[in-house]
Design a protein that fits this description.
Strand content: 15-25%
Structural class: alpha+beta
Radius of gyration: 16 Å
Strand order of the largest sheet: 1-4
Distance between the termini: 23 Å
Largest sheet: 2 strands, parallel
Helix content: 25-40%
Number of strands: 4
Shape: globular
Length: about 120
């Protein structure tokens, strides 16, 4: 299961993704994705903004990893989460930071919907 890819491809919430794939998730890819205006405008057939995306460390993108861990807990996932370190091949330090961030997100995620409700656990 690659939550960043599903954010790109369908924009579904992690909870509904995990509910559908529940018994078929072998492990989880941990990365994130950022969207940004790259300065280009398409003009055909109408003028519109072109958005680019980039894989980034788990703490730096649009994906909410607390929400992902909430979904995994609700889906009774008990497997491995692997950090994809291709976002910067120059430093093991970034992988260590990513792991620390993901551990904090896992701790912060509720095991079931509880008050105060948030955007993802209500």
């Amino acid at each position: 299961y690659d939550p960043a890819n599903t954010l790109i491809e369908g924009g579904l919430r992690p909870r509904s993704e995990v509910e559908v794939m529940k018994d078929y998730i072998a492990y989880v890819h941990a990365k994130n994705v950022a969207f940004f205006f790259d300065g280009n405008i398409a003009e055909n057939p109408v003028i519109r903004t072109i958005w680019a995306r980039k894989s980034v460390p788990p703490s730096a993108g649009a994906l909410d990893w607390v929400e992902v861990f909430f979904a995994l807990k609700n889906g009774s996932f008990d497997g491995f989460v692997s950090v994809e370190e291709f976002f910067n091949p120059q430093s093991l330090h970034l992988v260590e930071e990513a792991l620390a961030f993901l551990k904090e997100c896992e701790k912060a995620s509720p095991a079931k919907p509880v008050a105060p409700f948030t955007k993802f656990n209500d």
